[in-house]
Amino acid sequence: MRCTINSNSPRSQGPHSLSPPDQSLARRSPGRWILRERAAKTYRLELKDLDVIDPIERRVNPHGPAPIRKYNEQDVAALSRRLFAAANRVGDTLAVRSGASIVRSRALSTYPGLTRAQLDTIPPISVEPNPYSPNSAPMRYYNVRDIEALRVDMQKLKYEIQG
């Protein structure tokens, strides 16, 4: 695997500053940084939500297979505000059925870049009790068009946040 050196990192030399060529890095700002797991916990996000924004540094983790990723804390806070603001606008309203529909779990597997928090930002077309497991969460059905539009919006948000 070909690697490139992250010249923005204070450790611009050595194996800890390598990042894969397909992973773009955000511009480093003078603000604070936050590690991926801490960002998810602090801002009540899923780890997949953080994939919308680029890290400011990515390096090899000497203690495990997952790389260490640092994010600009301002970018993480902005993402959190947008996701939760959109979720609060949706509330308990239902969308009007328009074309094909998809159940929440199928949407998450069909569109792997989307997370539960992101799906919470759009209204479902129906919410029904789970016939397979009455004690679990209800089944939510969405318009496929809404899911595809959300995916496009998340891509736009990614580019907006990156500046």
Question: How would you characterize the overall build of this protein?
Answer:
- The relative contact order is 0.15.
- This protein has 163 residues and is α+β, with helices and mostly antiparallel strands.
- The radius of gyration is 18 Å and the shape is elongated.
- Helix content is 34%, strand content 16%.
- It has a three-stranded antiparallel beta sheet. Strands 6-8-7 form a three-stranded antiparallel beta sheet. It has a two-stranded antiparallel sheet with strand order 1-2.
- The protein is built from five helices and eight strands; from the N terminus they run βββαββαβααββα.
- It has one domain.
- It has helices at 36-42, 73-90, 104-110, 116-119, 144-162; strands at 4-5, 18-19, 33-35, 57-59, 68-72, 101-103, 126-128, 139-143.
Class computed from helices, strands and strand pairing: alpha+beta
Count of beta strands? 8
What is the N-to-C succession of helices and strands?
EEEHEEHEHHEEH
Major sheet: 3 strands, antiparallel
- Write down the domain tally: 1
State mean pLDDT (0 to 100 scale).
78
Which word captures the global form? Answer: elongated
Q: In percent, how much strand structure appears in the residues?
A: 15-25%
Discrete helix count: 5
Low-pLDDT regions: 1-22
Radius of gyration: 18 Å
Distance between the termini: 29 Å
Fraction of helical residues: 25-40%
Q: How do the strands of the widest beta sheet line up side by side? A: 3-5-4
